[in-house]
Structures are given as C-alpha cells and as structure tokens.
C-alpha cells in the first residue's frame, strides 16, 4: 500500500458528511475504534501501517466495495473496481447496512433492559 493517507482522510470525511454520520456511528457500523477513525480522518498516522481489514471494514460500513479505501490508499481509482457496478455487490452492501442498523437497535434495547429501563417502542412497529 503506497500510503495516500491524505486521500483516505478526504474520502472518509466526505462520505461521513454525505451520510450525515458521526465517527461514533461509523465505529459502531464498522467495528473499528473511534481513535483509529480519527487518526485516519486527521491523517495523523500516515507512517503507521494499517491492517487491510480496517480499511475493508470501513469501506463496507460506508457502503463502498470492500477494497475502496485500499484503492484510494494505493493511489488507484476505486471506480476501476470490477465489482463497483455489480448489482449483487451493491444489494449485499445494502443488506449489510440494514443488518448493522438492526444490530445497533438491538444493542440499545439490550442495554436499556440491562439498566432496568423499559425499551422505547418504535412508532413504525405499530406498538
């Protein structure tokens, strides 16, 4: 990986703004620590070697192909990804995002139950 970390930082910042997400939300969806996300966004650890799984997890959480951020870090155009236009890959990314949202909601309910609180009812559920 060549290390175009400033381009990775811009890509993450731009995508978070597009999605209206915080670093915390991205952390929950990707299972990557907020500290690591912050380092990548601020390009503070450019010399530090990154685990490819970190970039894969972030790419997928952001709704991109698994090697999107690795391509950016390598100075390649992520659009050259052969899976970029694959509707199955896009649909799987959508399903994965939906599952992450459901998992986050279940985690919140479990925490409320553990704290002894009554879980909040979702207006969409009709309860």
TrEMBL record:
Domain (HTH cro/C1-type) ranges: 12-69
Source taxon at top rank: Bacteria
Family annotation (SMART domains): HTH_XRE
Listed PROSITE patterns: HTH_CROC1
Residue intervals passing through the bilayer: none
Protein name per the record: Helix-turn-helix transcriptional regulator
